[in-house]
Amino acid sequence: SLFGLPDQAPHERVLLAADAETGLKAILAVHSTARGPAFGGCRFWTYDNELAALNDALRLSQGMSLKNALADLPFGGGKAVIIKPAGQFDRPALFAAFGRAVQSLDGAYITAEDVGTTTADMLGMQAQTQYVSGIPRAGAFGGDPSPKTAWGVFVSIEAGVKLHLKRSSLEGVRVAIQGLGAVGWHLAEFLHKAGAKLVVTDVDAAKIARAQQLLGAQAVGIDEILSADVDVLAPCALGAALNSVSVPQIRAQLIAGAANNQLATAADGDALQQRGICYLPDYLVNAGGIISVAREYRNEGEESAVMAEVSRIGERVAELLERVKLENSTPGRVADAWARAKLVKPV
Ligand code: NAD
């Protein structure tokens, strides 16, 4: 549907923004403002076609509603997608045009970084809109949210290892990381420090070599990572890694990663559960970044307070697994219902 996925509430507003001069073609999707202004990053990506971009924007913004609700943030869910122009383009001018589109929504949507966008893009947009976050500030926390996202994934893995794998620490636990980008790399460092054994892959050979050298990681091919012989799988590249082809091959007992929309369909979550694999829903696990940019936007607290709030994701994982047992359901379905019940204005 043009309004979003059929099993979710429809989008409140979707703006198609184009600018002939800069080549901007963007989709700004406001899924829900029930909890407050829709907050979610901006993806800058090459798509096969415009409908694929729309689909991505709609899926991602619905995910943000659930993510922001579960993280108890006073924000709704939204997301933007800029279709990367083919050929030459003036990046600052393109993002300035995007900033004007954000401003035109009068605060219904607040943007920040996502895949393909940088702190420099956000900084450049400040002249066009105040509805932007993820900008480094002198003497205060803020900017690149990916280390906070990685910390949230790390505490989720810690909780899952304890509660599902029944192991007291990460020492010797084997973790496969798909994608060593902004989040994947920080996650790899946290895990290495905690004594985990890493198995990694990326499309970029230089990132793999760095992980081998600095973190003693074992490298595998892109097609081998999902079926690697590990305890934990952390998808940290793009969406739909967990699908009808990969799920039967997964050997990990726990899945927790940064990538948005990891499950191709809800049925893939059921299939994981049937195989005894515990999948921690992406939007619960990867909320560290939005917690950081949301606090930055509201100019609230210090670095230590952000980290404490991100660490609470580990407690939510424990609560989720408790609810899953009580309700005899899957983590994905329980988290969905839990988040949807919170899609109302916080008191
Ligand atoms: P990134 O672009 O920095 O990293 C992605 C990495 O994955 C890159 O190194 C890329 O080369 C690699 N990659 C791409 N396709 C691959 C494949 N098929 N196999 C293996 N590696 C592949 O992005 P990021 O900011 O690290 O985000 C990663 C994921 O986490 C995305 O899905 C993003 O939406 C999600 N996420 C990020 C944040 C954040 O704070 N950055 C927050 C929440 C969710």
Question: Layout of helices and strands, plus pairs?
Answer:
Blueprint: E1 13-19, E2 24-32, E3 38-39, E4 42-45, H1 50-70, E5 76-83, H2 91-104, E6 109-110, H3 119-125, H4 146-163, E7 174-178, H5 182-193, E8 197-201, H6 205-215, E9 218-219, E10 232-235, E11 254-255, H7 266-274, E12 278-279, H8 282-285, H9 288-298, H10 303-327, H11 331-341
Parallel strand pairs: 3-5, 3-6, 4-5, 7-8, 7-10, 8-9, 10-11, 11-12
Antiparallel strand pairs: 1-2, 2-5
Helix pairs in contact: 1-11, 2-3, 4-5, 4-9, 4-10, 9-10
The structure holds nicotinamide-adenine-dinucleotide.
Structural description of this entry:
There is one protein chain. This protein is an alpha/beta fold. The chain folds into two domains: 13-125, Leucine Dehydrogenase, chain A, domain 1 (Rossmann fold, 3-Layer(aba) Sandwich), CATH 3.40.50; 146-287 and 316-334, Rossmann fold, CATH 3.40.50. It has eleven helices and twelve strands. The strands form two sheets. Strands 1, 2, 3, 4, 5 and 6 form a six-stranded mixed beta sheet that branches. The protein has a six-stranded parallel beta sheet with strand order 9-8-7-10-11-12, sandwiched between helices. The model has no long low-confidence stretch (mean pLDDT 96). Bound molecules: nicotinamide-adenine-dinucleotide. Nicotinamide-adenine-dinucleotide binds next to helix 4 and helix 5.
